[in-house]
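Progress report, Aim 2. The chain analyzed during this reporting quarter is listed below.
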Amino acid sequence: MAVTVHPTAIVDPAAQLADGVDIGAYSVIGPHVEIGAGTRVHPHVVIAGHTRIGRDNQIHPFCSIGGDPQDKKYAGEPTRLEIGDRNTLREYVTMNCGTTQDVGVTRVGNDNWIMAYVHVAHDCQVGSHTIMANNTALAGHVHVGDWVILGGFTGVHQFVRVGAHSFCGVHSSVLQDVPPFVLANGVPATPHGINSEGLRRRGYSSDAISAIKRAYKTLYREGLSLDDAKAAIAEAAKVTPEVALLSDFLASGGRGIIR
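Predicted structure tokens for the chain:
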């Protein structure tokens, strides 16, 4: 399939557009941009910076992708933004390139559903199959695991990690790490059990979900110190592989977990 560019769009001759890319009216594509096959850039989108976008993405009107990081230390270094395949970015989504104070690249994986007005700041590392509802905001250096759901108006503090399969409710203020599988909500966000329904939908067995619930109780309900809870969960992970995701997360440090 040929590349389609609306006559009113401005595409730098150095930009690399694969077969089947569709650039809508009044969109602006910079010289260091690569866009994969089948991706549609709707009208009034700006894609700048050293930005690589994969296949079959939908980028809706008024998105601003690949802009300079909102970091006063940024001095024009050629940092990057990388977006995977089959992502949907709804209206007014903003995603910034990375900084040299981190790995120098902001990454977004595959099959993410990113709703209107979401902001993904510099150096964020977002996995795959996530859902970010309207007005979610990720500060710099945030890591979001696979299958995470962030409710509308959720704000995530810089350097926070949000573990895989977790769920943050609407208006959550996430100031510390959210472990995998955990339901979180509030200002500041606190734990409220595990995301059982999400796990069932993704094919987790009843036994695995029960083991994850036991691990959650070990972490939050048995009055153990964090070190003792980590040790107990590490032992449980030897029997139930699914618990290893939680055990590894707790062992890898961070800003401290929500309590």
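The helical segments are 196-201, 206-220, 226-239, 244-251. The chain has four helices and 28 strands. These observations will guide the mutagenesis work planned for the next reporting period.
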